[in-house]
Specification:
Helix content is about 80%, strand content about 10%. The chain is built from two helices and two strands. The protein is elongated, with a radius of gyration of 16 Å.
Length: about 70
């Protein structure tokens, strides 16, 4: 088991979390792209800042897992 900032997770659990984070990131990228290119739809235009912040958080999480995976 690996200890990661106060948590102990197995390699299998780490890989599962990594896959889930990657899926979330990819989904948010697609949603962000869609919102950015459909500005004539007011509801999407209003959601755009929220999606942008979500994408930043998803990007941070994805980078964490990528970088941690390269260290070990």
């Amino acid at each position: 088991m690996e200890k990661i900032e106060g948590f102990q997770i197995s390699e299998k659990e780490f890989k599962e979390l990594n896959q889930r984070v990657e899926n979330i990131y990819n989904t948010v990228v697609v949603i962000d792209y869609f919102c950015q290119n459909q500005k004539e739809i007011e509801e999407l235009y209003n959601l755009s800042p929220i999606i942008t912040n979500l994408r930043k958080d998803a990007d941070y999480m994805n980078a964490f897992f990528i970088n941690y995976g390269n260290i070990n």
